[in-house]
Amino acid sequence: MANIILPSAWRIAEREATSESVYVTRRACLGLLGLGGLALTGILPGCSMPVSEEEFAKEPRNWEFSGADRTVYPAKRNPAFPLDRPLTAEHIAAQYNNFYEFSEAKDDVWRRVARYKPRPWQIEVKGLVRKPMQIDVDDLLRTMPIEERLYRLRCVEAWAMAVPWTGFPFKALLDRVEPLSTARYVRFTSFHKPSVAMGQRGYGPWPYTEGLTMAEAMNELTLLVTGIYGHPLPKQHGAPLRLVTPWKYGFKSIKSITRIEFVHEPPATFWNTLVPHEYGFQANVNPAVPHPRWSQRTERMIGTNERHPTLFLNGYKRWVGHLYT
Ligand code: MTE
Q: What is the pLDDT of residue 48?
């Protein structure tokens, strides 16, 4: 990591993690997870307050023009995943995004995705499987058991949200491609298009990659997501297809997936490659294990700024606790 110069702004995550206010200064907008290299590329965006619900409703909704198949939304809600807090307002979640391909400023991503086209979109599933496939995302969706689930999402930066995702269990895809017994991990790869994703012109092991063990991938909670708030995913949330693993820090929930590979060795991942001493492969939510630069004991809900104690495995111990005994 010798090439990464860490500007002072890089340290701001600590402030984000301990304050209850929404930071609106330019400094506070800089790369919270620590992708300080982008700050050297001269693409630092401005920073602004989120627009109100009324104003946001007047903005073009990018998922409406994406060509996504809307017939599957809203999907039937699966009641097995109750929430302990109110849902985050849609316009708040849509304007507070980590999507480093487009911007380091969370409040700017939704405006920076204009030239990104999530359709047509092919998904490749390959590696140690009996039935590899390449399929259009909407064709895949039409053959999968779609449902809505209310999940908390906990970012490693100590903010959180609660949202209704629409998608299908990863397990349903596994059953279709039939992994070989030699498959021990799953590697996910996002898109690579620096011509539309400005962030990819800066430092980073692009494209964004993530990984899970097979046991994690097969867990009931692991969801491949195509929609949110009862409609197709907006671009800033990772259209057309993203992963959601709610017991892990949000950076594991890779957006805009193009490739899913079944492999034998633990795959390299974006953050673990970039800042290995801060972002591990497992990345389970754990209040007792502080980030090297801030505490993880509490979390701030975006929108309301309410603070909650962080829950072990983000409250999903019942589903995944047995994986880590
Ligand atoms: N996926 C890609 N491809 N690029 C990213 O920068 N950021 C991650 C994750 N998935 C990221 C990504 C992080 S750090 C978080 S917290 C969540 O997406 C945020 O998801 P949201 O913007 O839908 O809330």
A: 65
